[in-house]
Structure formats: structure tokens, C-alpha cells
């Protein structure tokens, strides 16, 4: 095993992620898991790369906490060292031929991306999520398992559409929005909206905008 073939997998301490899922995307390519702390994330990644200068590829396996900004911190640190962040498409995903996938995007098993869709850099479409025709998903956004985006839906950056949510066709969702789990979204959802199950009306938050 050489460092040039190894993929560095950046996770958060305590997450318990052994990167076993990654082999479904990349086969038997060797992986090195690097758990990092929230506070020292950047310094810990830089130290690991100094110790292993031959590593050229990485995957950031950090969830959508704080609307993807922890993941973005890790990604920015890797990019400053010219580390490649591959786009991952599961072999059991359905992705139409004309779909556009940004650098570092991930499409999980049994997800469906219909014709005309565009997925931004480092965005994630997770298991069994469905994006109908001509959907747009912004950078660093996550569509959770089982979520459905109707035709022509646009989603901004740093959004989290949680499991089981249905977004009606031609709706637009701003930046730094969290919706669901479950429920139905329609129309225009402004930047910085948090709408969880059990809330009587959408709450507006601004700390991520």
C-alpha cells in the first residue's frame, strides 16, 4: 500500500465512522480514517498531511451539523494543500446522463437524479432520495434519505433537507435552511429558515447566513 493510492477520510471525533461505507463507492482502495476535533480541525488535518505527504486524495465524512460549515472547514483545509476531493456516485444510484455533479459531491445507493439536475460542490444526495427533473442543489447542502424534490425545485447552499421531506414542484429554498424531517415544503422558503416537525410555523435563524 502506498500513500498515493490511499484515501484520507476525515471524520469528527466520537462519530464512530470507520469509513467502511466508502468501499461501496471506491472498491478496495485503501483508506485512512482521521478523526478530528471540532476546535482543532484545521491544525489536525494539516499535521496529518505533513506526516503523510504522499496522500493526494481525501473524503470528508462529516455530517450536516451547523449546516455543513464543519465540513466546509475541513474541505477548505484540504484544498489549500491541493488535495483532490473526488465525486462519489454509488453503483446502485440512478443518475441521468445529463446530470451535473460538482467536485466532492456524493450520490448514495438507490438515490435518483433525473434529467437536467445539477448538484453543487460537496453536496450530498443520500440513500433513496429523489430529485425530479431540473432540480438544483446548492453547495454543501444535504438531501437526507427518502426525501423527494419535485420538478424544478431549487435549493440554496448549506441546506439540510431531512429524511422524508417532500418539496413541491418549482419551490425555491434559500441558503442555510433546515426543513423536516417529514412534512411538505412549498413555495419560497427564505434564507436562514428552520422548520422542524412540531413547529407551528417556520422559525427564522440568522447565525448561518
Q: What's the gist of this structure?
A:
This protein has 209 residues and is α/β, with parallel strands linked by helices. It has helices spanning 23-26, 41-51, 69-80, and strands at residues 7-12, 31-36, 57-60, 88-89, 94-95, 100-101, 106-107, 112-113, 118-119, 124-125, 130-131, 136-137, 142-143, 148-149, 154-155, 160-161, 166-167, 172-173, 178-179, 184-185, 188-189, 193-195, 203-204. Mean pLDDT is 90; it is low at 203-209.
Outline the structure in words.
The chain is of the alpha/beta class and about 210 residues long. It has three helices and 23 strands. It has an eight-stranded mixed β-sheet with strand order 4-7-10-13-16-19-22-23, with no helix packed on it. Strands 5-8-11-14-17-20 form a six-stranded parallel β-sheet, with no helix packed on it. A hairpin with a 7-residue loop joins strand 22 and strand 23. Helix 2 runs parallel beside helix 3 (about 70-80). The protein is globular, with a radius of gyration of 17 Å. The relative contact order is 0.10.
Rg, nearest Å: 17 Å
Structural class: alpha/beta
Sheet with the most strands, sense and barrel status: 8 strands, mixed
Which consecutive residue ranges, at least 5 long each, have pLDDT under 50? Answer: 203-209
What is the distance, rounded to the nearest whole angstrom, between the alpha carbons of the first and last residues? Answer: 43 Å
Largest beta sheet: strand ordering? 4-7-10-13-16-19-22-23
Arithmetic mean of pLDDT: 90
Percent range of helical residues: 10-25%
